[in-house]
Amino acid sequence: MERINKETVQLHINEFATQEVYLHLETTNGAYASHFDESFFSASAYIRNAKITYENGKIAGDGPYRVGLKLDIGWVYGEGLTHFELDEEGRLLLAGHGPDGKLAIAMELSKTPFR
Amino acid sequence: MNKQSHVLVVFPHPDDEAFGVSGTIVNYIRHDIPVTYACLTLGEMGRNLGNPPFTTRESLPDIRKQELQQAAIEMGISDLRMLGYRDKTIEFEAPGKVKQDILDLITELKPSLIISFYPGYAVHPDHDATGEAVVEALESLPEKDRPTFHAIAFSNGHEEAIGKPDILNDVRPYAQIKLDTLRAHASQLAWTLPSLEKAYHEGNKEAVERLTIERFWTYPLKAEHSS
């Protein structure tokens, strides 16, 4: 992965628009957060292989970045994105990595289902 | 600890074995007691991806699979089973599914001992669900057919609830192999290793204990007809 280049990522987001694509979206503070700090309120979520179609999508901010995808009847939103990769299978992988080297958010689009 | 005929280790994630059990595993193998390690997932949702990232959410499972295979080699495990579940989902599987997988392994291998997590005191939901499935599997068997269950607990306050561990395995001779096993899981553990290794070699009490003593609770399974 490399640090997000806003213009490049915007072009990739455009390439996935107006067709059925598969979404992996995840935020996480780690399964041990409340174990190490009992005052920490642990919350996370992930959805894998949601089938969506968006008419337009946009990357915003100056880094870390936000991405919003406008669906026919809804939205997909993510913030804290720092890195991206168009992988060898042509999937757009966006991720937010904290200074501690840990993933905080992943937002990924693919034309075929994620395994 | 060497009176077993076959040991079955069941954990949900690659690296769950490294800190708490790898020395015990090596001890059994060195005493010609066969060990089977069943690992339920490939730790697909691990958070340690680095910054700058050294991998992606989608490539991590391949890395962790190789690390698990390398860790098995370090410990001398020749029977490694990867059960194909997904990280963070064990507790949501259909009731009885994981239990049945464990029963199938028990039927096939006839282990005298199972090692897994102590349900309710193992912090990660996958850990607790795995331990629960082991308990369900064992309690469904007649008492005479049940292997012993050595469980691992480490949640905050676990000793207040379940007492002190009744099994303390001295794995001093295998501390170096244990470090090598931890090292095999580099993607998830590399950042913890240098300080642990340094503290161990300097004789720091906590680090030495961590690498040389492995703690288990013999799980109190319900009597055959009490449920």
UniProtKB/TrEMBL annotation, chain A:
SUPFAM superfamilies: Hypothetical protein YojF. It holds the Pfam family DUF1806. Gene3D superfamilies: Hypothetical protein YojF (2.70.180.10). It comes from the Bacteria. This is YojF family protein. It comes from Shouchella miscanthi.
UniProtKB/TrEMBL annotation, chain B:
InterPro entries: BshB2, GlcNAc_PI_deacetylase-related, LmbE-like_dom_sf. Its cofactor is Zn(2+). It comes from the Bacteria. The gene is bshB2. It holds the Pfam family PIG-L. It comes from Shouchella hunanensis. This is Bacillithiol biosynthesis deacetylase BshB2. PANTHER family: N-ACETYL-ALPHA-D-GLUCOSAMINYL L-MALATE DEACETYLASE 2-RELATED, N-ACETYLGLUCOSAMINYL-PHOSPHATIDYLINOSITOL DE-N-ACETYLASE-RELATED.
